[in-house]
Amino acid sequence: MSDGIVFTYMGSWCANGLATSWHGDWRLVGEQGSVVYERDQPPVGAIVSEATGFQHPTAPCAVEPVPTAPAMSGALAEFLGALDGGPTPQGECHDNIKSLAMVFGAIESSRKGRRVAIKY
After folding, report:
1. pTM, entire model
2. CB–CB of 63/43 below 8 Å?
3. Are 78 and 91 in contact (CB under 8 A)?
């Protein structure tokens, strides 16, 4: 990223094994710990309580869930609201093209063995 933040993305629409919910499963990793959203359950967080060599013991931390509408009904409500002149829904195609540009940029970077500028 332009400000030096490292961004890593991995995803698959055709992974073998357990199904992913409509919401997806997310792991957010930060400097002091992680937050995990899995299987439509409330988020779980852990912070590093002590950095000792390779192992980093963690302690649970409270994570305030962000209120959201159920995924499919929420997405449909946003779509219908946009048709009635409301705000642009999340994930509409003009935003999604940036994700596609990121994927193609990652492929190009891997092939060239260096950072590449992503244009969208």
Report:
1. 0.45
2. yes
3. no
Residue type, 62: A
- Of 53, 31, 54, 35, the residue nearest 44 (C-alpha): 35
- Answer yes or no: are the C-beta atoms of 24 and 10 closer than 8 Å: no
pLDDT digits (tens, 9 = 90+) for 66-116: 776 666 677 788 889 999 999 988 777 777 788 889 889 999 999 999 999
**Closest among 38, 36, 18, 14 to 27, alpha carbons compared:** 36
Structure tokens at 101: 């540009």
Q: What are phi and psi of 35, to 5 degrees?
A: -130, 135
Sign of the dihedral through C-alpha 75, 78, 79, 80 = positive
